[in-house]
Amino acid sequence: MFAVHLMAFYFAKLKEDQIKKVDRFLYHMRLSDEILLDIMARFQAEMQKGLDKDTNPTASVKMLPTFVRAIPDGSEHGEFLSLDLGGSKFRVLKVQVSEEGKRNVQMESQFYPTPNEIIRGNSSELFEYVADCLADFMKTKGLESKKLPLGLTFSFPCLQNKLEEGVLLSWTKKFKARGVQHTDVVNSLKKAIQKHKQDIDVDILALVNDTVGTMMTCAYDDPYCEVGVIIGTGTNACYMEDMSNIDLVEGDEGRMCINTEWGAFGDDGALEDIRTEFDRELDLGSLNPGKQLFEKMISGLYMGELVRLILLKMAKAGLLFGGKKSSALHTKGKIETRHVASMEKYKEGLANTREILTDLGLEPSEADCIAVQHVCTIVSFRSANLCAAALAAILTRLQENKKLERLRTTVGMDGTVYKIHPQYPKRLHKVVRRLVPNCDVRFLLSESGSTKGAAMVTAVACRLQAQRKQIDRVLALFQLTQEQLVGIQDKMRAEFEYGLKRDTHPLATVKMLPTYVYGMPDGTEKGKFLALDLGGTNFRVLLVKMRSGRRSVRMYNKIFAIPLEIMQGTGEELFDHIVQCIADFLDYMGLKGAQLPLGFTFSFPCRQKNIDKGILIEWTKGFKATDCEGEDVVDMLREAIKRRNEFDLDIVAVVNDTVGTMMTCGYENPNCEIGLIAGTGSNMCYMEDMKNIEMVDGDEGKMCINTEWGGFGDNSCIDDIRTQYDKEVDEGSLNAGKQRYEKMTSGMYLGEIVRQILIDLTKQGLLFRGQISERLRTRGIFETKFLSQIESDRLALLQVRSILQQLGLDSTCEDSIVVKEVCGAVSRRAAQLCGAGLAAIVEKRREDQGLEHLKITVGVDGTLYKLHPHFSRILKETVKELAPQCDVAFMLSEDGSGKGAALITAVAKRLQQAQEN
Ligand code: BG6
Ligand code: BG6
Ligand code: GLC
Ligand code: GLC
């Protein structure tokens, strides 16, 4: 009995002595809570540094955006392939995620070796090997005939701009293949797979880090999971960060998973005070000296080696094995992490230690075994402590982001160290809980590796890709081929001729209206004139003063509103309102009672027999006043003036806005023989040879023709390019079936087309979470100015979103991208169509004059042309392409059509006076 007690005493004493000895020797590796809290604070600062745009370039902890935005919601389903490369084992898998609700995942997998000559060879060898393994797997599983989406778990630091891309920043752990760093691994894999065209048909949709895969795997079972940690061959963590804190990715909405790459913590010297001589020695002998310094204190690839280096030093110092060393103890890599784990086993640990040391060619005493076991404990404990400190920093960040008193969260865990080391998980959990007492943390082991999660990410990507295809299908309807544009040009040209010929004119849709404007102002015009400008965005009254010979005018104008009820009331009300505005203007200018000649810009199709007669054929755009169509608008204006009985005006000319614009520009540039309006409406006028105008007698000289090309297509000749959206816009307009070309090209309708597309995409569940809001149902919300703003290149996505918000549309960032694309497609088509029309006229003019080359200037006006960031450019490009023999210059009319109308009035007045004399 006494002997037993004595033995126990002896053994306890022996153990205590050994532990003290080792503790003393490895004093520096034992980290107090105080130090851990300090490390935690340092890591918090590192995370911020990596997230900020300005400091990221020099940050050692890279905080890489992963483009994984949401954890699985259970709606994922389908069959996927998965590759898992970078951990201790390389696997190829098939993952079957079952239908909604059941949350059932089935996996079949196969491990493949990763020989050193492959992982340290060159890029093509590595990826061809991976592709070979994939091909082999598909063959064994009978998957050759299937086209499957593939997710790649690639456990190295990668820079991503999208989910299906990963530029390797640097190799870590055991890999060192040449020519891969700074290249996109997805692309390299794609290329390698190309060589297996016959047996593999896959679509690589996602690249994820193993931490991300782990988090997603665990989140599939526990929606609270928002952190993923790997303590395996390497170590790393990811977590869900608020988008508003991620400088490197546009958008502020929601969250995105950040791959911290915490293994590189300390690479800038931030951990020098806690690194030991063993850490330094280990680093020097590694594949990547100076890199991954935090990882090298923690992960499986290094833990055994650290123990070896310590044992060697202790032996050398005579503290172990009676000072003897074996050659195995001198050999790098002879002690592995699995040995450390086995030596630390609760019951068999000591016996395992003896066996392992003996295998290393050593002859350990009982005391040696106890000491070595304690060395292992210190090394693995330090590892768990360091991980805990960094993880505590992440948890604190989550808690702060959410502004919570207490955070309840789940951390998804994986990696061989965490899984096979007997004490590791318990120690880690305990320290984390001590460091962040305000967090209720659940640690969830990922049973099925990173791949299940990678499949979830792929499933989401797959769904998004399908949605993308649907969106593209809609946008494709608006993309016109060169051939289609030439077709439009030809048809427009034919319609011009139709409208000009006496026989066909009555039925022509492009009306080619004679304007009785015969020539350009010559600079001798002078006097004071009034002008009205009705039919565009604004109604104006103007006073224009011209001085002879100067080619310069002075203008005074006032904008007046025309309320909707007047635009669409009775003709009398409309003209009374106009006269009221004139009266106000005269009053305002102090011209009460002055009897001035007046030019009337009236931007609607009018049949003219004379310069001062214009019979409104029909209203277009937003006007619909009754009792005007078929009437002479000059008479209507005169009668309204009479009704008011306050002043008299001499109405000399009525002109279309295109004609006014051409004149305004022609005053400065006599080569301007075309007037174009791309505004609320769309129209063009040009100078035609009298001999070609069959409806007007005389063959000498030229006359301006108001084409009214807005009506192009009213005979269905362009129905092949009209979409369902164009038809919907037409049906909802004031003049259904009319002005079909105008409805595809002008400001008043482009926004409506956009709105119809958005409604349809929303119905298909592709936008606005499938919810059609009241606002979206409201006609006219997308005015030209909003379209122009949305499409501005200088605008960040966030601003697009805020414009949409102003419009009452509550959109996500993804929605905003789609809306911008829709606007782009619609306005681009408009500019191209308009360009095709213009090409038709310049080519006609060139051919009519029998010229090889035509040099001509187009006077342009209109809000679409002026405000839209791309319209004018695309218009010009199209004209250039379709009419290569014409040198077309564009001149923006700075002063509106009113000035031109006044000039025409001046000329007409001079002729009138000449006749009277
Ligand atoms: C696995 C993952 O479960 O964990 C791997 O599927 C990952 O991709 C690994 O790299 C980490 O552990 P280890 O110990 O294999 O590096
Ligand atoms: C203006 C003219 O400059 O341009 C108007 O003076 C014309 O009469 C207009 O209708 C066209 O642009 P919008 O975009 O106002 O219809
Ligand atoms: C290394 C890699 C990292 C990976 C980790 C765990 O640290 O750089 O990307 O997540 O190992 O495998
Ligand atoms: C409409 C009108 C036309 C006008 C154009 C531009 O198409 O019918 O006369 O020129 O809009 O304002």
Strand order of the largest sheet: 1-11-10-9-12-13
Average pLDDT metric: 94
Strand-pairing-aware structural class: alpha/beta
Number of contiguous helices: 30
Using the CA coordinates, give the radius of gyration. Answer: 40 Å
Low-confidence stretches: none
Strand composition percent: 15-25%
Distance between the termini: 149 Å
Can you tell me the overall shape? elongated
- Associated small molecules: 6-O-phosphono-beta-D-glucopyranose, alpha-D-glucopyranose
Helix content: 40-55%
Count of strand segments: 26
Described by strand count, sense and barrel closure, the largest sheet is: 6 strands, mixed
EC number: 2.7.1.1
Keywords: Allosteric enzyme, ATP-binding, Glycolysis, Kinase, Nucleotide-binding, Transferase
Organism: Erinaceus europaeus (Western European hedgehog)
Subcellular location: Mitochondrion outer membrane
